[in-house]
Amino acid sequence: MLRKIKSAALCLLAGACVLTSSCTVSPEPSLDGTSQPPQSIKPNGKTSTVEKIDVNYETILQATLVPVTTVNLFYKDVNGPLKSLAVSVYDKISEGKVIAEIDTSEVQESIDRQELQRQLWELRERSQSYSEKSHQIAIEQAKDTYNYALELYKGDPSAANKEYRDRSKRAIDQAELNLDIFKVNKQIFAKEHEDFKKSFELLKEKLDHCTLLSPGAGIVTYVADITVEERVTAGTHIARFVPYDGMVLKTPSSSTINLKGQKQINVSYEGNTYSAYVYSPVPGDAVWKAESAANIENSVYFAFYGEVPLMTMNSASPVTISISKSGVLGVNKKCIRNINGVQTVSLYQDGAYVQRVVTTGIINGDMIEITDGLSLGDVVAVE
Question: If residue 204 lies in a helix (H) or strand (E), which one and from where to where?
Fold first, then answer.
């Protein structure tokens, strides 16, 4: 009887071990890549649930309009003395504004010479029709002569008449060959004439190219040190400007708010409000080239969805930055821990607390926006 009781007790103990093994929670990877076993505890009263909240944020900052892309303006295919230069650094320009003009006299002189060439080409073209008719007439005459020589030889097949007949036949072959050569030359002429007409039209267009126009609206950031009547050549940079849609606002970063990823921002300047989003510079952007990496990390950049405020380049101006959103995910801000620059929370999951990396946004009272890392209804510990 005692043996049966001991045997039953051992079976119960083994079953309990198996049950305990099957309920073990898998370890959660930590920030440094190592696996840390979660704490098998129940949530206490110090927790916060992820819920939907409304967030509002507004601040006034000193902002600077800086370039992302620039456009170089230069004459592509004309040379000549500069007639006028109509812009200065930091001028606000509209699309189609005259930037500079080149004296057109040199281009006009080339056009006048080409006009004489054009008249010669037209005369040659008219002479082509006469030449073709001449070749056709020559063939007809050679055939008539051959027919006459052929009849003459039939009536008197002498050696002289035979030589006359053969010579007349060769004259037809030569006349037809001359016509074939003429037709080939005519095709070559037609192609050369067409090329000339195209080049002449392009030359006439250069008169329009002597006026340098702004391809868009923006702000001038560079003007060449060239005086009027000084000769400029194709490829010389006359001016450089930043199109309005190639600019961003640069502001100091705020330690109380994480703007990264924000897409619904209002920027107010001089009574007007503009829709913007946070812009992240990449290597190659003008803002990247102009600043050190450390400077960029301490700045926030705003790009615009449409219209851009017409601020003065590189001159700080007060702007109001505001964000208002409803129905975003939020949690008590005391839940957030910052570990070596990484924001984390202790998420209650499967009966244990695990560490979860999150991305935060706007702080609104005791709550903070969660843009990534948590879902609605998640429970996290209040630190």
Answer: helix 159-209
